[in-house]
Design a protein that fits this description.
The chain is of the alpha/beta class. The protein contains 7 helices and 9 strands. Strands 1, 2, 3, 4, 5, 6, 7, 8 and 9 form a 9-stranded mixed sheet that branches.
Amino acid sequence: MSAVSLPVGTVDYLQLFSTVKLSSRQEMEEKIKKYQLGQQFCEYLKEQEISYAWCIRHPEVCGCEESRDYYKRYQEYLGDDYSICKHLLVHERKGEKRVFLIIVDDSKNVDLQKLKIELKCSKLEFVSMEEMQELLHTVPGNVSLFNMKFDIQRKVNLIIDKELFDKSLLAFHPLYNGMSLFLTPENTIKYLNMIHRQASFLEIPVKKKELLLEKVI
């Protein structure tokens, strides 16, 4: 399937911000630079013959819930057999202080307590904003599998939930959270092979929903 961008063109993209109150011209210029970074990364993928099915442009989002709202607008194109990928960048509080990028479907509430047992590591906690910038050159709300290309020193261990590969398409931000790429699991692996990185595929444990006890009168 050839890549299709929704909406089409830079003008359409800028119109997405027509209702957003920007404090200055500088803020708009910064948004355009980030948009151009995303565009350049898309071109980079094409040059490497890593195809994606869809590219959606939207206002910058800070979480999966916001992303889902925009994706619903294009359901007739996307269908419903896709996963919005949630990224958790964590490290060990003590010991080796290993770093892990955990990728799961956004519907999953990861149980870090159980996961640390599977990974045979100490208690896991989220990294600081400074550490995230240092490791993956990004900020909260903009973490993506694609940022692994910046982990030159290979400090980040990539953990991917097996269930993601049951989906037809996976959604990731192309280094910019104002755009989303939908690509097949096969092309996701192709990207990792291209940057010479491997992932561990696990059944990521999730927190059980608390049972509510009814009071019998």
